[in-house]
């Protein structure tokens, strides 16, 4: 069965973006980027990977799921299909009929995310990347098989948390690996404890 992997950048104080969705504080230069290019080349937007001549075929994902706010970050830049090398599923209730133009390999849906992810997990293929955001991650928390956290050495002070508040309900994960880079970024992978 395929795994759902929440792969995301996070600050030391647990935010994946600023209050208005800003993510420019996260370091985009440094030795951690080479680690990302090697281990997670499929998480780089298709256009950026092509510009870097980055081979995305060896990645671990073939599908990405995300909420509308995460998806919409690329719209002002004309990115209507940011990860067109993957099957993309965007969850929304209010933007189903927006005219997005051409959007290869992208489905916009108001279906229940849990049902969609369970269906995807039952199909053959590689892992499924949960790209964000926090509300979707909270909805899918019991479907998440792995967390891959790119912890950056910064404190945002406010913003969009890794998971939205949903009531106290501990879920245990075991550390699989941790890599520390000179840039100060630490990439840790955790598997759900069964």
TrEMBL record:
GO molecular function terms listed in the Swiss-Prot or TrEMBL record: 5-amino-6-(5-phosphoribosylamino)uracil reductase activity
InterPro entries on file: DHFR-like_dom_sf (IPR024072), RibDG_C (IPR002734), Riboflavin_Biosynth_HTPR (IPR050765)
Bacterial bifunctional deaminase-reductase C-terminal domain location: 4-186
Gene Ontology biological process terms from the UniProt entry: riboflavin biosynthetic process
Protein name, entry field: Dihydrofolate reductase
Lineage: Bacteria, Bacillati, Actinomycetota, Actinomycetes, Micrococcales
């Amino acid at each position: 069965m395929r795994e759902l992997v929440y792969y995301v950048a996070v600050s030391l104080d647990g935010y994946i973006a600023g209050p208005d969705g800003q993510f420019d504080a996260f370091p985009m230069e440094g030795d951690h980027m080479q680690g990302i290019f090697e281990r997670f080349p499929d998480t780089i937007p298709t256009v950026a990977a092509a510009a870097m001549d980055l081979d995305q075929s060896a990645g671990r994902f073939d599908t990405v799921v995300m909420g509308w706010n995460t998806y919409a970050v690329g719209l002002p830049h004309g990115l209507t299909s940011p990860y067109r090398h993957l099957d993309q599923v965007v969850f929304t209730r209010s933007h189903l009929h927006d005219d997005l133009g051409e959007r290869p390999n992208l489905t916009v849906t108001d279906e229940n995310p849990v049902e969609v992810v369970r269906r995807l997990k039952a199909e053959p293929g590689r892992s499924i990347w949960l790209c964000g955001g926090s509300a979707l991650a909270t909805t899918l928390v019991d479907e998440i098989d792995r967390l891959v956290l790119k912890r950056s050495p910064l404190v945002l002070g406010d913003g969009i948390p890794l998971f939205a508040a949903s009531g106290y309900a501990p879920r245990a994960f075991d550390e699989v690996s941790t890599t520390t880079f000179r840039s100060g970024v630490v990439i840790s992978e955790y598997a759900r404890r069964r």
